[in-house]
Write a structure and sequence with these properties.
Number of domains: 2
Helix content: 40-55%
Largest sheet: 6 strands, mixed
Distance between the termini: 40 Å
Order of helices and strands: HHEHEHEHEEEHEHEHEHHEHHEHH
Number of strands: 11
Strand order of the largest sheet: 2-1-3-10-4-11
CATH topology of the largest domain: D-Maltodextrin-Binding Protein, domain 2
Oligomer: single chain
Structural class: alpha/beta
Shape: globular
CATH class of the largest domain: Alpha Beta
Radius of gyration: 20 Å
C-alpha cells in the first residue's frame, strides 16, 4: 500500500503554493508546542497529528518539542474550546475534526466560533466504508448488500459527517439499517465492530489503511466496500480495485445517483472530507509566529520524509488547504443551500432521538 500512496506525493507537492511568504525571525528554541486534538489518540486524528508533528518540528526555527494531547467529549467540542481559550503565544495548536458545515447548521451547542482562531491550514483524506462479513447470510462483496438486513452503523455523533455519510449512503442504496452513535472516536468504533456490537463504519481512509485493514479485514471478520471520490485528491491506486460509492450506487439502483440525498452527500464529502482537520492557533498570536507556523506547515506538506512516512503508515497522502482557502470556507459556512440544510438537520434530529 505504501508504494501506491507514495506515487501520489508528487501531485500533492505540485498543488502547494511554493511561494509562501517568508516568515520573520520568530523562534521556538526551547519551547514545547501542545497540539490539542478533539478525538482519541488512537484514531486517524491522533495518528495524523502525531505523524505530522514529528516532521513539522524540524521546519520550525528552534526545533521545538511537540506534544499531542487528546481533549475529548462534549460532541468533540471540549478540545475545540480548550484550544480557543489557550494563551495566544503560539505554543498551543488546535488539530481538530473540522465538520464546519454541519456544525454551522446543527444544534447551537455544537456550533463553533472559528473567528476565535487564527487559521494555519486544513488537511483532508478521502473516506470509505467497510463492514463485518458475517451480517445476514454473509457478505463477500457489495453485491451481497442487496436485500440485506441487520446492518448496524457505528458512529461518532449525530452531526459527524462520517455518521451522516454512512446513513445517507445506505438510504440512497435502499438498505435498511440501525444506528448507534456516541462512541467518540474511531478506535472505539473499531473495537465495538470487533465485538459485533456494530457492523458498519465509514472512516477516513488513513484510519482504514493504518490499522483496520490488518485488524479487521486481515483477521477475516470484515471487508472494504467502497470509497468516496474526493475532487483534487491524489490517491494514485491506493484503493486498488475498490469501487467508488458513485459506481456502487449506479450499479445497485440502475441509474446515476442524483436528487436531494445525493447532493447532500456530495456537499458533505467535498466540504468535510476535503478538510478532515482544521489546524489553527488561538486568535491573537504574534504575526511573526503565525507566519512561521503557516510557512513551516506548508513546507512540511512538501517534505519527502513526511510524505514517505504518511504513505507507509496510513496508505494515503492527505490533501492540503491553505489558510486563505480555509478562511474562505469559514466565510461561506452560512451560505448552505436550504434544501441541503434541511436534509442535514433532519438526519441530525433523527439520529439524536
Amino acid at each position: 500500500m505504501f508504494m501506491k500512496a507514495l506515487a501520489a506525493a508528487g501531485g500533492l507537492a505540485a498543488g502547494l503554493a511554493l511561494a509562501t511568504p517568508a516568515a520573520a525571525e520568530a523562534s521556538y528554541e526551547g519551547e514545547t508546542v501542545t497540539v490539542i486534538i478533539n478525538l482519541g489518540a488512537g484514531g486517524s486524528t491522533g495518528v495524523m497529528a502525531q505523524l505530522f508533528a514529528n516532521h513539522w518540528k524540524e521546519k520550525l526555527t528552534g526545533n521545538p518539542d511537540f506534544v499531542v494531547t487528546p481533549v475529548t467529549g462534549g460532541a468533540q467540542m471540549k478540545g475545540i474550546i480548550e484550544a480557543q481559550n489557550a494563551r495566544p503565544d503560539g505554543t498551543t495548536t488546535a488539530w481538530v475534526a473540522w465538520s464546519g458545515p454541519t456544525r454551522a447548521i446543527g444544534p447551537a451547542a455544537q456550533r463553533v466560533d472559528w473567528s476565535k482562531f487564527d487559521v494555519i491550514a486544513g488537511m483532508g483524506v478521502p473516506s470509505m466504508a467497510y463492514m463485518r462479513n458475517d451480517v445476514g447470510g454473509g457478505v463477500s462483496s457489495v453485491d451481497d448488500l442487496k436485500g440485506l438486513e441487520g446492518i448496524r452503523i457505528g458512529g461518532y455523533r449525530p452531526g459527524s459527517y462520517l455518521d451522516l455519510t454512512a446513513r445517507i449512503s445506505l438510504d440512497i442504496l435502499g438498505i435498511p439499517h440501525d444506528y448507534t452513535t456516541g462512541f467518540g472516536g474511531g478506535s472505539k468504533i473499531v473495537a465495538a465492530l470487533q465485538r459485533d456490537e456494530v457492523n458498519f463504519h465509514v472512516t477516513p481512509a488513513g484510519n482504514y489503511f493504518g490499522g483496520i485493514e490488518d485488524n479487521v479485514v486481515g483477521e477475516g471478520i470484515g471487508l472494504p466496500l467502497w470509497y468516496y471520490e474526493l475532487e483534487g485528491a491524489e490517491t494514485g491506486d491506493a484503493f486498488g480495485d475498490m469501487p467508488s460509492f458513485a459506481s456502487v450506487a449506479q450499479d445497485m439502483t440502475g441509474q446515476a445517483p442524483s436528487g436531494p440525498l445525493w447532493e447532500t452527500l456530495q456537499w458533505l464529502n467535498e466540504g468535510m472530507a476535503g478538510v478532515t482537520w482544521f489546524i489553527g492557533v488561538p486568535a491573537g498570536v504574534d504575526e511573526e509566529q503565525l507566519a512561521l507556523l503557516r510557512s513551516s506547515f506548508a513546507e512540511t506538506m512538501q517534505d519527502p520524509a513526511f510524505l514517505e512516512e504518511v504513505a507507509a503508515t496510513t496508505g494515503i497522502v492527505p490533501t492540503y488547504t491553505s489558510h486563505e482557502a480555509m478562511e474562505a470556507l469559514i466565510e461561506g459556512l452560512n451560505n448552505v443551500d436550504p434544501a441541503i440544510s434541511e436534509t442535514v438537520k433532519g438526519y441530525i434530529a433523527s439520529g439524536s432521538e
